[in-house]
Amino acid sequence: MLLRRALCTAWLALALVAVAGPAVRADAASSARKAIQAAYDRDTAAYPRLDLKEVLSNCAPDFIGIDEKGKKQNRADLKRLLMALRKQVRSMSYHARIDKFAAKGRSATLTVSERLSYTGPDRNRRLVTITIDSTSDETWALRGKRWLRTLSKTTSERMQTKWHNRRPHLVLPASPAAPHTQ
To answer: What pLDDT score does 167 carry?
Structure first.
């Protein structure tokens, strides 16, 4: 009788695990997606403030970024780039949207569409707004209690430039005897 009760309990436990297993995995994937979306939301809030510490806090120490041409950069390179950009920029905005998401265990792979827009002076001190639309495949890993970006590979990128208060350029004469005009 005791053995029969133990076997029934064991079968019942196995049946519950079989039924609840997919729901638990779906719940883990859902919570991973929410945590990663929250990280992108923090980035969206940090870029206008030019808060590099917050932006870099979502990158793992071993983060690798690969651009469309295959050039790699690590977290320190990204920090240097953002610090140089921060010195020149008057305003900045950022937005990311998760297009595809798949979580397996302690890692997640996703496809993200991002838009980064910043305004500042160009080399000729004219005000310019540069907008970069990109799509990237990213890998995030659960490190401790936080999800951190470990790999970002840009698959497509488009850049638009808009000059503000554009002045006409100096038109050079066709011959040295002709007067200069503006």
So the answer is: 58
Lowest mean pLDDT among 59-68, 138-147, 162-171: 162-171
Beta-strand ranges (E) seen in 41-168 are 59-66, 72-74, 91-104, 107-121, 127-143, 146-163
168: three-class secondary structure by DSSP? coil
Report the Cα–Cα distance between both ends of the chain, in Å, rounded.
Answer: 104
Helical segments of 89-172, H only? none
Sheet containing 107-121, strands listed edge to edge, beginning at the edge strand earlier in sequence: 72-74, 59-66, 146-163, 127-143, 107-121, 91-104
- Alpha-carbon distance values, 57 to 47, 51, 61, 123 (Å): 13, 10, 9, 31
Class of CATH domain 2-163 = alpha beta
Q: List the structure tokens of 4.
A: 């029969």
Provide the residue ranges of all domains of the chain, joining segments of one domain with +: 2-163
The span from the CA of 50 to the CA of 117, in Å, is 12
**Alpha-carbon distance 16 to 176, whole Å?**
91
Six-digit token pair at 85?
A: 């950009």
